[in-house]
């Protein structure tokens, strides 16, 4: 099964087909962030994301073989048509294998289909990916 970016607005979203315990998705996402030295700890990031959910924000989760291997927050500043992408993390075993770029491109494509025309990459890795692939300016 290929990598698939899925938007969620609840940390208990039923993404894992056969969860072995309650809150398994949230636990796995927290572990992803905890293993990433470029991001705040998982508890802090998930608290920020949970607050964003209350305002209608989204978290994209990269699923591969029924496992979350990547995540990135997609926040709306509620003032412009710009989406802010931040808190990109990828499972340590999948880093530097092109997963980051493929995942960001999938998120970008989904958001463009929704009508988003501008993106503000907050993290340096997201900015680099979007610059390398010419994704920072969407054609109308």
Write a structural description.
The chain is an alpha+beta fold and 140 residues long. The chain has one domain (4-132): Gcn5-related N-acetyltransferase (GNAT) (Aminopeptidase, 3-Layer(aba) Sandwich), CATH 3.40.630. Helix content is 34%, strand content 25%. The chain is built from four helices and five strands. It has helices at residues 24-34, 42-54, 99-113, 124-132; strands at 4-8, 58-64, 67-76, 82-90, 118-121. It has a five-stranded mixed beta sheet with strand order 1-2-3-4-5, sandwiched between helices. Helix 1 crosses helix 2 (42-54). The chain starts with a strand and ends in an 8-residue tail after the last helix. The relative contact order is 0.16.
Please indicate the percent range of residues in DSSP E strands (runs of 2 or more). 25-35%
Radius of gyration, CA atoms, in whole angstroms: 14 Å
Give the averaged pLDDT, no decimals: 90
CATH-defined superfamily: Gcn5-related N-acetyltransferase (GNAT)
From the N-terminal CA to the C-terminal CA, the straight-line distance is 33 Å
Q: Number of DSSP helices?
A: 4
State the strand order across the main sheet: 1-2-3-4-5
Count the beta strands.
5
- Helical percent range? 25-40%
- Poorly predicted spans: none
CATH hierarchy: architecture: 3-Layer(aba) Sandwich
Protein structure class:
alpha+beta
For the record, what CATH class applies? Answer: Alpha Beta
Assign the CATH topology.
Aminopeptidase
Number of structural domains = 1
Summarize the main sheet: 5 strands, mixed
Molecular shape: globular
What is the succession of H and E elements? EHHEEEHEH
InterPro entries: Acyl_CoA_acyltransferase
């Amino acid at each position: 099964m290929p990598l698939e970016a899925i938007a969620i607005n609840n940390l208990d979203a039923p993404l894992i087909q056969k969860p072995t315990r309650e809150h398994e998705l949230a636990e796995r996402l927290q572990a992803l962030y905890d293993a990433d030295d470029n991001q705040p700890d998982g508890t802090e990031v998930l608290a920020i994301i949970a607050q964003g959910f209350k305002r209608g924000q989204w978290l994209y989760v990269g699923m591969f073989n029924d496992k979350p291997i990547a995540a990135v927050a997609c926040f709306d500043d509620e003032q412009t048509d710009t989406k802010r992408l931040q808190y990109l993390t990828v499972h340590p075993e999948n880093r530097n294998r092109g997963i980051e770029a493929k995942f960001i491109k999938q998120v970008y494509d989904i958001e463009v289909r929704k009508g988003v025309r501008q993106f503000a990459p907050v993290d340096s890795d997201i900015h680099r990916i979007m610059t390398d692939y010419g994704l920072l300016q969407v054609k109308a």
